[in-house]
Design brief:
single chain, 147 residues, alpha+beta, eight-stranded mixed sheet, 3 helices, globular, binds ligand V0V, binds cobalt (II) ion, Methylmalonyl-CoA epimerase, metal-binding, VOC_core, MMCE/EMCE_epimerase, Glyas_Bleomycin-R_OHBP_Dase
């Protein structure tokens, strides 16, 4: 793939904390953001709420993903044992996750999953290991229909 075809925009930036209802109340009531979507992803062990600075998403608007772990063995629960609540990952939107994954692997980037898994709103997701993200956990996401 050409470099200019790899990534579309920053889809979301994810915050991990122990209490999502408290976090979303702060975002909506104090900061004036809008709740757009919420769901539980059993596979990832997360309760997530997507918030945005506007009530309607524009094409390349970045959302904040508020995450609360749903079980003690979730990756985010383990992360919370080692870190204070705060920024956990950022997600880069792609149009074709299989093509982008193949190109990244060719270039030596370490992706966590052999095949994409299901994320928010039926999206397809994978993650670059922090060692391949200059110390940052980076998700790649191909939006689903409910995104
Ligand atoms: C761990 N490390 C991080 C990190 N988590 N660095 C930056 N940001 C993070 N969030 C570093 C950590 O400091 C260590 O560095 C090293 O990685 C290994 O960490 P560990 O504590 O031993 O943890 P591991 O290896 O058990 O797990 C780390 C990985 C895990 C990244 C493999 O968190 C994972 O599988 N993440 C992908 C799934 C995920 O995060 N799901 C929740 C979001 P040193 O000490 O070795 O230098 S779900 C989501 O976003 C959805 C559904 C969506 O958007 O649709
Ligand atoms: Co995410």
């Amino acid at each position: 793939m050409e470099n200019s075809d790899l990534f579309v925009c920053i889809d979301h930036v994810a915050y991990v904390g122990p209490d999502n209802e408290d976090a979303v109340k702060y975002y909506t009531e104090v900061l004036g953001w809008h709740e757009l979507h919420r769901e539980v992803n059993e596979e990832q062990g997360v309760f997530e709420i997507m918030v945005a600075p506007a009530a309607e998403l524009t094409e390349h608007m970045t959302q904040v993903q508020l995450i609360q772990p749903t079980r003690p063995d979730a990756t985010t629960a383990k992360w919370l044992e080692k870190n204070r609540p705060g920024l956990h990952h950022m997600a880069w939107r792609v149009a074709d996750i299989d093509a982008v994954s193949a190109t990244l692997r060719e270039r030596g980037v370490r992706l966590l999953y052999d095949e994409p898994r299901i994320g928010t709103g039926g999206s397809k997701i994978n993650f670059m290991h922090p060692k391949s993200g200059k110390g940052v956990l980076i998700e790649i996401v191909q939006p689903g229909t409910g995104h």
